[in-house]
Design goal:
This protein is an alpha/beta fold and 191 residues long. Helices cover 27% and strands 31% of the residues. The structure holds S-adenosylmethionine.
Length: 191
């Protein structure tokens, strides 16, 4: 099932057929949803096996390209209407995050949208697990690295890059899952 965030972004786009890049597409559910809505989609993930599976599974869709790549280290591309990142910025270091956000700004068309959903410091598992040495706000829980973003710092960084924030909140109800309703950051930033 596509995420609530994918539905939210699709609703923002309305009838417009957009060029979208998803950073960290995982099992492809949101990328495939956008493609089925008629958008042109580049879906990036570092997991080779997953990308191979998705390429085969969705070879009948001609408006989606899956690519195995590190989204923190991409070259500049033809500009996109949407850069979409759901639950990925908390899997990378602050330095990689800054590089990714800088890349997003450079690689969006004017009025293009950077759409982010991510764990922040109001998230219920912030500070749970083992703190990562020499890294601020990062913890390992159940073998999983997560770095919890500071909402105000993220908003300030985006504004300094030149984005206008159409929507920014850290709240519940964005991504209820399995009977749990945790607190997440959601940002829609316009170039
Ligand atoms: C928690 S999953 C989220 C998947 C999807 N966005 C969703 O919401 O269902 C995070 C994904 O980001 C990918 N990922 C993390 N860091 C990455 C990087 N530097 N480059 C590419 N993919 C990355 C992981 O392989 C994983 O598939």
């Amino acid at each position: 099932m596509p995420s609530l965030f994918a539905h939210y972004v699709a609703d923002l786009l309305g009838d417009k057929k957009a060029e979208i890049i998803e950073l960290g597409c995982g099992n492809g559910r949101d990328a495939v949803f956008f493609a089925k809505e008629g958008h042109w989609v580049d879906a990036i993930d570092q997991c080779y096996n997953e990308i191979c599976f998705l390429m085969k599974q969705y070879q009948h869709l001609d408006n989606i390209d899956f690519r195995c790549d590190d989204f923190t280290d991409m070259v500049d591309d033809e500009p996109y209407d949407v850069v979409y990142s759901r639950f990925t910025l908390h899997s990378i270091s602050k330095e990689q995050q800054d590089r990714t956000l800088d890349w997003a700004y450079r690689n969006l068309k004017k009025d293009g949208l950077l759409c982010i959903e991510v764990r922040g410091q109001k998230n219920e598992i912030y500070k749970v697990g083992e703190a990562v040495e020499n890294e601020k706000d990062a913890y390992i829980l159940d073998d999983h690295y997560r770095r919890f973003l500071n909402f105000d710092d993220l908003c300030d960084y985006l504004k300094k890059l030149g984005f206008t924030l159409d929507f920014a909140a850290e709240a519940k109800d964005f991504a209820p899952f399995n009977g749990q309703n945790e607190t997440y950051i959601r940002v829609i930033a316009r170039k």
